Known about the structure:
By secondary structure, this protein is of the alpha+beta class. The chain has two helices and three strands, in the order αβαββ.
Amino acid sequence: MTADVIESYIKEISRTLKNNGYGFIHHSFFYGTDTPTENIAGRSNMTPDLFRSFVEKYNMKIILQEDFRVSNEVNDTITIFQKI
């Protein structure tokens, strides 16, 4: 998925999540080529900071972002957020 698709998911989550409700998403922590399908394992171009900017743009706040290694070449992040 491209960043604009991920942003549209965050926008929709914000629209449907109740105030003070929580959500979490497991997302890529990788930034490679401009075409995600050419990245290692088709990883989306996403960073915790970029994901945070989408969450905050749609009236939610980050509760926790935890990075972890999937393989020698791939990192991911779990982000927990709350609608405010």
